[in-house]
Design a protein that fits this description.
heterotrimer, B: mainly alpha, MetI-like fold, 2 domains, two-stranded antiparallel ribbon, 2 strands, globular, C: D-Maltodextrin-Binding Protein, domain 2, Dipeptide-binding Protein, domain 3, five-stranded mixed β-sheet, SBP_5 (chain C), signal (chain C), ABC transporter substrate-binding protein (chain C)
């Protein structure tokens, strides 16, 4: 039992020889990168079929969201018309089988109101993708910048940023959100109606989300900044910001991409919670998260109502993840593929 | 370990004192903000907070009386001061001929049902702690294992399958996976009852009540851990010192288990610190779905009922949990990776 | 290696199949439909068997544990402070009043019957003096007798609004309209019984002296807030955590939002109580935070009934209606769900614009949004609940909401719009509570149908916990432009006063905590309420109620949605079950029994 413990002492801190190899290795990798970073990444990405497929699906989803009115027109449905004649008045669920799926209503109709689910899904894509992606972006940008600064500079910058992150993590966000219900303006910065609400929602979700990214990035930076290649760059007289952006950031790409892609589904669901409380988009505007939360009351009597938005979110997350993985692999300075 | 001892016991102590001081400042700020939101926002919106605590027959005298009783008429700073004073030396509540002594640590009395908050917190804390620790244990084991395997067999069927299952976990809201698990294992198969039983009453009952919440919560978190582990592990495997280690003829389990894992631990630990800290303040959705009488349930009701003393109590506990968890993580950074200095 | 892998994969497939099978078997659970009218295989009494009639009275046995489940705790279990309907119902287990609701099904359950008093009041001819004599043998949980002074003290507590807020204040308004008494905690007299309007010449006699007659006074004395409280057991603001019992059960434990355990009060004597049967030995309440989970456990048989009595949620309702119909009752709740138009918000100052909305709405769609004819209720056609004397139900339908215009009448709506000077429609805002998904659904329905007649509405969800402060403040309503407010209201006691006074009387327009959302200032209506309170004859009282209802409807202040109905669950174990109008169509808790 003791043998393996004694054996690899060198690994806790790489030996001098290893260090030398390390410096040499990363310098080499950098040199390769330096020549044609973008090109190499693109070449690699092109070869990754799954990643490309993921990217294509993301594009298609965005197109669907943009063209929602056109598509809805094509199938002759809109997301706000009630079809109570398709609802069983006793159970409030669609009369047809599989949630009322028919030639007219491709994905069936909603319980209670009988609104067309297909139309609501494609219109809902606008809200869900926008909020899901942009708020993840806000969180990642804030989290990365502040996390790198805190991790690299340490001292009072780290102390301040870290305490703010702790504070935000511990803060009862729901209290803030419910308070927001009462003071939500109808106009703001030239935006009106749904625009204001989307803007506020993206900010709020992003704001409460950045500490999660921030702490991970800070932690990684803490361990990276003492790495030999960073020290080497430093001793060669590289400026702080050069080190930050050219040396550290590329090594943070992996966790950042993972975080971005993983935050999207959470944000889509958070949007639903906010809208439900009255901070988000106003009824009858559709969103995937809103449909999924409404479906809980019919989880057995109308399972299709849950399956459809659930699958929509799942496809989105899956394709973002596949694409994200591909991008990460392509950008990996040490990538062997 | 020579390099790891750069921070002597003295330095560590100084570091801890600095951290504790910063934490105290943070606590005060959070409590101030909570008070501020509670009192200023309704005023801004033109709503009198006192109206939330009178019945549907609210005559002006009653509203004024409630305002006085709950201290809503006092300036915010005075209220915050009273709150902290109560924590350390206790306080006396009096109003309308009703006098109550509240000994330290006094978290006050619920605006809604007048119960003392401190017993509520001590009663509910173990439930939430049990939930968070149990779930964390599961998601760490499954998430990290899945992540490592995925990284080693990247592109394989295993890798893709694990990813799809994990993403399923984050795509579905917890009330959904929770209801589904109840529908299958409790109402359907009847294997477990699924209702919460205190540990003090019956161990098996407690286990039966906690297993579904643990799995449901872990299912949500495991995805994140699996993905992060996979990504970091792949990064690390490309590092030269791993190549060196392999070249030196170390067996694969040693290379992965000791060397690669060590670097992979940093982000996992960071996340664990945050997630545990935040969850100990209450896993609101899980506790609501499974009717677990924990802190999350209490704070949810309190927020929708505007029961400020409960909100303050739970917020304090959450803050402490987050502070302690993150402090531990920062200390562990230095242990795992001796190059990291405490600052 | 390869064989191993196959086994692994096969195992996964088996596991997946097991999950699918489990899902399917859940969906088909029960299978057999146990509805066959009176008495089924499971022992359930049959659909609607306890609605306005007593089901399985003879099967009730002494003993057992009656198990309530609840999705929400009461506002307070303090008899002075509680205002939730189910709290009033449940409080009869541990509190008694001079008079209380009859323990009888349907409308009879809303009549008053003597409880602590030997008989109902001796009322003076001018209707200003009410005298009661207390029954022999009624005791507190420590065995001491309940005196007239305890009753007076219990009533006086309502005056201490600074400590005990939340409960109804009818007695205060009737006995001390000038608010001269400051409540028992500020009472300078030695016995703390300084309220002049109540006299207690001896321990058995209590006399109420009203400054002005009020024909509903005895109804107000039947409310839980008129329960006796013993001075030496009054823990003031903490009383609701452990009330001191005067009824057949006492609190063994209570943890807010977790649960309650009541056990027999051994000092209570059946001979002293003509009302309460006290069948079970023990009564428990467990609170859930997931209503869907709670419904499933009711259906499974883990619990006997829902303490909230507000009906099953959609999933549980569907399962129960399909598989356990014999366990359900479909009572009318006494609530009316409606939209109301504040006259301070333009263009609703013009009655034609109000009527345009009434005609433009699709009433059947609104009913569907409320849950349909069974779970939601019949289309509401006027503003007096069916359980209130003087109501005419759907027979009075001035706007033909349940008949000709049930899907909206666009032509009439346009006409009204023209008369209002807005031929092309207008824009307004619907205010709706954010914690009531069903109300949001009705707002969406209203929005969709009004769009067809040119009225564009924006739905604004406000914080439901702040209802009193947000829509209860007329200045705020005006500022925010809430032209349509979605609400519901039920009678505190079944009379036009107990229902409509706060909604329609100009005296009740308040700066904060207002319930007269429409801001009705109608001399005729005010005058009718005045004559109602002076009238002692029941038939004439009913006639006045009818008239008030008509005046309110003619003004077009309200768009009623439904006369609310619920689908409530009763377990196979329950016996002597019936719904009562005394508690808004809930089961009468106090006399529920178990079969074994």
């Amino acid at each position: 039992m003791t043998a393996p413990l004694h054996e690899p002492t060198a690994e806790a801190a790489p030996s001098a020889a290893d260090e030398a190899a390390l410096i040499a290795g990363s310098a080499e990798a950098k040199a390769v990168q330096g020549r044609s970073l973008g090109r190499i990444a693109w070449e690699r990405l092109k070869r990754d079929k799954l990643a490309l497929a993921g990217g294509m699906v993301v594009l298609v989803l965005i197109l669907i969201a943009l063209l929602a009115p056109v598509i809805a027109n094509l199938v002759g449905q809109d997301p706000e018309t009630h079809h109570e004649d398709l609802i069983d008045p006793l159970f409030s669920t669609p009369t047809g089988s599989f949630g009322g799926i028919s030639g007219d209503h491709l994905f069936g109709v909603e319980p209670v109101s009988g609104r067309d689910i297909f139309a609501r899904i494609i219109y809902g894509a606008r809200i869900s993708l926008l909020v899901g992606f942009l708020s993840a972006l806000v969180a990642v940008v804030l989290g990365t910048i502040l996390g790198v600064l805190a991790g690299y500079f340490g001292g009072w910058i780290d102390a301040t940023v870290s305490r703010v992150m702790d504070g935000l993590l511990a803060f009862p966000q729901l209290l803030f959100i419910i308070a927001l219900v009462s003071v939500m303006p109808n106009e703001m910065l030239g935006l009106t109606g749904t625009g204001v609400r989307l803007f506020v929602m993206i900010l709020v979700i992003g704001f409460f989300g950045w500490p999660y990214v921030g702490r991970v990035v800070r932690g990684q930076t803490l361990s990276l900044r003492e790495r030999e290649y960073v020290e080497a760059a430093r001793s060669l007289g590289a400026g702080r910001f050069y080190i930050l952006f050219k040396e550290l950031l590329p090594n943070l790409v992996a966790p950042i991409i993972v975080y971005t892609t993983m935050m999207i589904p959470t944000n889509i669901l958070t949007e639903a919670a906010l809208s439900f409380l009255g901070v988000g988009v106003k009824p009858p505007t559709a969103s995937w998260g809103q449909m999924l939360s409404a479906a809980i009351d019919y989880y057995e009597s109308d399972p299709m109502y849950m399956v459809i938005p659930g699958v929509a979110i799942f496809i989105t997350v899956l394709s973002f993840n596949l694409f994200g993985d591909g991008v990460r692999d392509a950008l990996d300075p040490k990538g062997s593929r | 370990m020579a390099r790891g001892t750069a921070a002597g016991p003295r330095a560590v102590l100084a570091y801890l004192i600095r951290r504790l001081f910063a934490a105290a400042v943070m606590l005060v700020v959070i409590i101030l903000v909570v008070f501020g939101i509670f009192f200023l926002v309704p005023r801004w919106a033109g709503v009198d907070p006192a109206t939330m605590f009178v019945g549907k027959q609210a005559d002006p005298a009653a509203i004024e009386a409630v305002r006085q009783k709950l201290g809503l008429a006092d300036p915010i700073f005075a209220q915050v001061w009273e709150f902290f004073k109560g924590l350390f030396v206790g306080r006396t509540y009096s109003g309308g001929g009703d006098v109550t002594e509240c000994a330290a640590p006094c978290f006050g009395y619920s605006f809604r049902n007048e119960q003392a908050i401190w017993p509520v917190l001590t009663d509910r804390f173990p439930v939430t702690l049990g939930l968070a620790l149990g779930a964390a244990f599961l998601w760490l084991i499954f998430g990290v294992a899945a992540g490592v395997l995925s990284a080693l067999k990247r592109g394989s069927l295993w890798d893709r399958g694990a990813m799809i299952i994990a993403l399923g976990g984050v795509s579905l809201p917890i009330y959904f996976t929770g209801m589904l698990s109840l529908a299958i294992f409790s109402y359907g198969l009847g294997w477990i009852d699924g209702r919460y039983v205190p540990l003090s009453e019956s161990f098996t009952g407690w286990l039966g009540g906690m297993i579904l919440p643990w799995v449901t919560l872990a299912f949500l978190y495991a995805a994140m851990y699996a993905r992060i582990t996979r990504a970091t592990m792949m990064e690390v495997l490309g590092e030269d010192y791993i190549r060196t280690a392999r070249a030196k003829g170390l067996t694969e389990p040693v290379v992965i288990g000791k060397h690669a894992m060590r670097s992979t631990m940093t982000p996992i630990l960071t996340m664990l610190g945050m997630d545990l800290g935040a969850l100990i303040g209450g896993a609101i959705l899980t506790e609501t779905t499974f009717s677990l009488p924990g802190l999350g349930q209490a704070v949810l009701t309190a927020i929708s009922d505007k029961d400020l003393p409960v909100i303050l109590g739970v917020t304090l506990i959450t803050s402490l949990a987050v502070i302690i968890a993150n402090l531990l993580v920062d200390l562990l950074y230095a242990v795992i990776d001796p190059r990291v200095r405490l600052s | 290696m390869s064989t191993q892998r196959t086994t692994g994969r096969r195992k996964q497939a088996v596991a997946a199949a097991a999950v699918v099978a489990a899902l399917l078997s859940t969906a088909a659970c029960g299978g057999g439909n146990d509805d066959d009218g009176g008495g089924s295989k499971t022992g359930a009494a049959g659909f609607d068997a306890a609605n306005n009639k007593v089901a399985q009275a003879s099967l009730a046995k002494k003993g057992g544990t009656l198990k309530f489940a609840g999705a929400q705790d009461a506002d307070s279990w303090d008899t002075t402070r509680g205002y939730y309907g189910f709290m009033w119902n449940f409080s009869r287990y541990y509190s008694r009043q001079l008079v209380t609701n009859k323990t009888a099904p349907g409308a009879t359950g809303a009549e008053v019957t003597p409880d602590l008093a030997e008989k109902t009041a001796e009322i003076s001819d001018d209707g200003k003096t009410y005298k009661y004599t207390l029954r022999e043998g009624s005791t507190w949980e420590d065995g001491k007798p309940i005196t007239s002074k305890d009753v007076k003290y219990g009533i006086e507590r309502a005056w201490a609004q600074d400590v005990l807020s939340g409960g109804p204040i009818y007695l205060q308004q009737v006995l001390d309209p000038k608010k001269e008494y400051k409540g028992p905690y500020k009472d300078k007299s030695a016995d703390k019984l300084g309220l002049k309007a109540i006299e207690t010449p001896d321990d058995k006699t209590i006399i109420f002296k009203l400054p002005a007659a009020n024909s509903d006074f005895e109804e107000m004395l039947a409310l839980t807030s008129a329960s006796p409280v013993r001075q030496d057991k009054d823990t003031k603001s903490k009383y609701g955590l452990k009330p001191f019992s005067s009824g057949p059960y006492k609190f063994q434990s209570y943890t807010p939002s977790k649960g309650i355990v009541l056990v027999r009060n051994t000092e209570w004597k059946a001979s002293s109580d003509p009302v309460r049967k006290a069948y079970p030995d023990k009564i428990t309440v467990d609170f859930f935070t997931n209503a869907n989970d709670m419904d499933q456990r009711l259906i499974k048989g883990d619990y006997d009934l829902d303490i909230g009595q507000t009906g099953l949620s959609p999933q549980g309702r569907t399962t129960a209606l399909k598989q356990h119909k014999a366990n359900l009752d479909n009572p009318v709740s006494g609530y009316i769900r409606y939209a109301v138009f504040p006259q301070s918000v333009k263009p609703f100052d013009n009655e034609h614009c109000r009527k345009a909305v009434i005609y433009g709405a699709d009433h059947e769609s609104l009913q569907t949004a409320r849950g349909g004819p069974v779970a939601g209720g019949d289309i509401g056609t006027n503003m007096l609940p069916p359980s209130v004397p003087g109501s005419e139900g759907q027979k009075y339908d001035p706007y033909e909401l349940a008949t000709a215009n049930k899907n909206g009448n666009a032509a009439k709506a346009k006409e009204e719009l023209k008369a209002c000077g807005k031929p092309n429609g207008f824009k307004t805002t619907i205010a709706v509570r954010n914690n009531k998904p069903v109300e949001v659904a009705t707002a969406e329905s209203l929005q969709a149908s009004l769009k067809k007649v040119g009225i564009t509405v924006d739905i604004e969800q406000f914080d439901g916990a702040q209802t009193t402060g947000i829509i209860g403040s007329p200045s705020n309503v005006k500022k925010k432009g809430y032209g349509i407010i979605i609400m519901g209201w039920g009678p505190d006691f079944p009379s036009v006063q107990g229902y409509g006074l706060p909604l329609w009387s100009s005296d009740y327009i308040l700066e904060s905590g207002n319930n007269n959302f429409a801001l009705i200032k109608d001399k005729t209506i005010d005058g009718l309420f005045d004559s109602y309170t002076k009238e002692l004859d029941d038939t004439k009282k009913a006639a006045i109620s009818t008239e008030i209802n008509h005046k309110v409807m003619e003004g077009g202040y309200y768009l009623p949605f439904v006369f609310e109905k619920f689908i409530n669950w009763r377990s196979n174990r329950l016996a002597n079950v019936y719904t009562t109008d005394g508690y808004s169509g809930q089961y009468d808790f106090v006399n529920l029994g178990l079969k074994k």
